Amino acid sequence: MVKNQIKFILFGLVLFSPFFLNAQEIYEDLQGVWRAEVTEVVSEGEKIIPGTETKTKYQTLKVEILEGERAGEKIEIENDFILLEEGQKFYMNYLITIQGDEIYSVRDIDRRATLFFLTALFAGIVLYFGRWQGLRSLISLIGSFLIIIYVLLPLLIQGYNPIITSILLGSVILAIAIFFTHGFNYRSLIAFSGTVIAVCITGVLAWFSVKILNLSGFFSDETVYLNFSTQGSLDFEGLLLGGIIIGVLGVLDDIATTQVAVVAELKRAADHLKPIELYQKALRVGNEHISALVNTLVLAYAGVSLPLLLWFSQSKSDFGRIINNEIFATEIARTLVGSIGLILTVPITTFLAVYFVDKYKNLKVSGHGHSHGHHHD
User: Fold this and answer.
1) Residue 125: what pLDDT?
2) Which of these three, 110, 130, 160, is where a domain ends?
3) Are residues 101 and 163 in the same domain?
4) Within this chain, do residues 70 and 213 fall inside the same structural domain, yes or no?
5) How many domains does the chain have?
6) Within this chain, do residues 195 and 337 fall inside the same structural domain, yes or no?
7) Pairing with 159, which of 184, 248, 283, 357 sits 20 to 30 Å away (CA)?
């Protein structure tokens, strides 16, 4: 399958090589990306995209350049990308073609202020309702992102095995999320142990699924571009596996810590329960939690893929052919493997919690499952 895709890509390169070469030459003459502000919307209208019957809106804008060597200069540009309003700030490309013509084009809207506001709102709500533990959860969240950006991604770019790297760094991320947020105690240790076991099982299931489905990892435009930019040095099948593992870490953490808390609270309320009874009662609570989290997982993937789903809904192909497409097969495998890992976390973590609940007093008598790290183990 991979060989066929490589042949297809090579054929496309030969077929469209004049276009790629021309695009590359234009890109090499890019003079800069500057921030600008719309001072006036001169005109708006509609036009037909050449070669299609699709209409698109376009604008003629007067803008002021806000940065770069030409800051303060006012120019007029054509825009058929994102409709802008007067006073709106955006980024634009400035390039010179081979013939020496200057071209200005809208690159993207300047969304930084809104993003900062939403981030501050999120942090404020977490801190207000979560207090000290909310602060620790924010710090662990930042730490997780830093590990992904500055450790995981560089290692993957350097060609390290994606699945092993993802499992190891995923375990580090889980350790930060669980121990830093919930405290260094036996509850956290049991939750961490159960989650790591589930992550390893999920990794094996992901590998098995990718192999039997013959998934190549080339399921989006971004993967093709990345393959070209890295000269084909990356293992995209492995990257797909790593993505599945990283994608389920959050929900595994959630279910594991909850199950340990459930066992501890049940034991505290009914100390006479036998281990098997405690396990069965805790498992029933976990099963309710699972149904909600599986729905969350499926709907989250469906939401991200909504434009793709709409596009395929317009297709005249039958359902079987649609799901056979690698893009859909990849998302289905990702959802199912993640859900299986999530489900298995419940009995694994519950078993560990029941096994250790009588051995460590701290697990049984401490307060709420989301501890605050002040217990003396």
Assistant:
1) 96
2) 110
3) no
4) no
5) 2
6) yes
7) 248
- Establish if 194 belongs to a structural domain: yes
Percent of the chain residues topping a pLDDT of 90 = 17
Whether 76 contacts 62, CB under 8 Å = yes
Spatial distance between the Cα atoms of 225 and 235, rounded to a whole number of angstroms: 14
> Do residues 151 and 285 share a domain?
yes
Domain presence at residue 23: no
pLDDT single digits (tens) 63-111: 999 988 888 889 988 888 888 889 999 998 888 877 777 888 888 899 9
218 and 133, same structural domain?
yes
pLDDT tens digits, residue range 256-277? Answer: 888 999 998 898 888 888 889 9
Q: What is the arithmetic mean of pLDDT over 288-292? A: 80
| Residue where one domain finishes, among candidates 62, 91, 110 | 110
pLDDT confidence of residue 124: 95
- The pLDDT mean for the chain works out to 79
Instruction: Supply the pLDDT for residue 56.
Output: 81
Query: Is residue 376 situated within a structural domain?
Result: no
Distance between CA 3 and CA 240 in Å, rounded? 18
User: Which tens digit of pLDDT belongs to each residue from 168-217?
Assistant: 998 899 898 888 887 888 888 999 999 999 888 888 898 888 889 888 87
pTM to 2 decimal places: 0.67
